Fold this sequence. Notes:
Strands 1-35-34-33-32-31-30-29-28-25-24-20-19-18 form a 14-stranded antiparallel beta sheet. Strands 3, 5, 9, 10, 11, 12, 15, 16 and 17 form a nine-stranded mixed beta sheet that branches. It has a five-stranded mixed beta sheet with strand order 4-7-8-14-13, with no helix packed on it. The protein is mainly beta. The chain has helices at residues 53-56, 321-324, 447-450, 488-496, 596-603, and strands at 3-12, 24-25, 33-35, 37-38, 66-69, 74-75, 80-86, 90-98, 120-126, 133-140, 145-151, 156-157, 165-171, 176-184, 198-207, 212-215, 231-234, 245-260, 268-284, 287-293, 333-334, 337-338, 361-363, 371-380, 385-394, 397-403, 406-413, 416-427, 431-442, 456-468, 473-485, 519-531, 537-546, 563-574, 584-594. Strand 10 (133-140) and strand 11 (145-151) form a beta hairpin.
Amino acid sequence: MKYILITVNLLLGVLCFAQRDSVVPFEDAYKRVYQVTKVSGIKPVMDGRLDEDFWMNHGEWSDRFVQITPFERAITPSTTRMKVMYDDKFIYVGVWCKDPYPEKFNRFIGNRDDNSMGDLISVAFDTYHDYRAAPEFNLNLGGNKTDLIVTDKLDVNRSWNAVWEGKTHISLADSMWTAELRIPFSQLRYNQFSESGTWGLHIRRIIRRNNEVQNWSMIPLKNNGHVFSFGEMHGMTDLPKPRGIEFLPYTMGKYRREPKIPGSPYQKGYAWDGNVGLDAKFALSDFTLDVTINPDYGQVELDPSVMNLTAYETFYDEKRPFFLEGKHIMDFANGDDRMFYTRRIGASPSYQPTYIDNVHSFASTQENVPIIGALKLTGTNRNGVTVGVVQSVTARSSSKVTRDGVEDKEVVEPLTNYTVGRVQKNWKGNTLLGGMITSVNRALDEPHLEDFMVRNAFTAGIDFTHYFKNRLYYVDMKGMYSSLQGTEQAISLLQRNSTHYYQRVSGKDYLGVDDRRTSLNGTGGYVKVGKRGNAKWNISETFSWSSPGFDLNDMGYMKQADVLSNETEVLYRQTDIWKIFRYNAFNLMQKINGTMGELLPAMI
């Protein structure tokens, strides 16, 4: 299949009929610096008021928040100021929010991790000061708390959860509201003995009535990277030692209603179940070791119902706490394709007993393959080297089968070992070089499993990113290799599945199923160069590929192999006031997609 897509997008901002005389031009306060204060022997009362001695007589207030939208680089009468302090256990953040229209305060109250409504403040820390990722804590006026991990490319992991406190208070007489946050150091990952004592700091305020966004340290709409553009917080030199050990045991009882199958000894219309397990966390200098034994699937069962009418597998977000720790470290993706998809570990069984007619034969069902145990090591050292290692073993699982009144057991998933290793070196946020390896090894002793499952699956990848001219120009590339080994029957089925479709008609005998193969190998990746950041004109050129035999689906997630793609994008952005428009953008993109079987022979 080959197609060419050309799109032209025109985006014009909202008309500028706001109170233009109420804003004052703001000199560029890019990369502001805040000197944090350490306190001892005194603690605040968590009531959101900021009127006690702790806040009045300690630390330094910082104001002059700059507006990002609707008018970039402006200061309005809705002034904001903030203060940050810390002791041996907590970081304390106080934010003071003035508003000339207190009757229009938006006090939306909703569920946790819902920050789409309500006046809001957010605080983010680049704890390693490596410009890669930052934990962010949001608190709205109604008291809704949201915590997430945001990366330099503005990828957001909302599934990350931390234990912290936040309170707000409204003073209508003073036309303001205040917010108070207390964040335990135990919820953050950082270098205890950092030589510079510098963290990245980003504090933001949102006023919903006019969609106004203010930043303490300005991050322009045309920026060179989100976390890279954070301000700096100096003085984080006398930090507490990370908590040594943390245990989180769980027990679970479950009652499930299900369709009843007449005559079945397994599908009775209801089922009782229970489980017990443990998550543990250990601080090892600059790294964190997470261990889990029989992890809790309670959160996984909250997956939304999906109607999938395509040939592609449905992708589900990770929700298990063990796999969320350091999730951004383990990311290695090319678009929607990724080398490590955590939901592979402990997924539903791959095999279903055959010849089940619900009249003379029945089989029990198993929702997930038990994880015997898993460990994860993640962190970044003082030299800018980031490491991530995951090791997990899932159990040999069986289903009970009754045929003509005779009960037996059939293995539906073999004993399986999963290993992932990730390393990346960061040079001041401008150069990143790293690699990743994964392996899946199955103990296949049953012929009915050998006929469709590969015994060993290995992948390896290397990635490189480099920025030039204060991050105005960049080169970004990834290369991946996969190798699968199994029986002739398993590899034959693999060639025919929806990811590969080796049986399809192609020019010059490029493809074709080989029933004698016992392995399948391939490569994939992309090369991207361009200009972006604090400039009106952004351009990019991307070439990506995956060979017919490339496959990530034993440990990762991948929709389709045998793809060649070229994409060109030209973008013009005007964020300053232009005529009656606040913002306008013109985007031209062309994309050519095809397969190696179609494009390469035509080029030879």
